[in-house]
Amino acid sequence: GEQLWMKENLKVTHYNNGDEIPTGYSNYEWGNLSTGAYTVYNDDPSNTDVYGNLYNWYVVEDERGVCPAGCHVPTDEEIKELEMYLGMSQEEADDIGYRGTNEGSKLAGMADLWNDGNLVNNPEFGTSGFNLLPGGYRNYFNGYYYGMGTNGYFWSSTEHSNSNAWNRRLSYNYSEVNRYNYYKRYGFSVRCIRD
Question: Taking the model in full, what pTM does it have?
Answer without folding.
Answer: 0.97
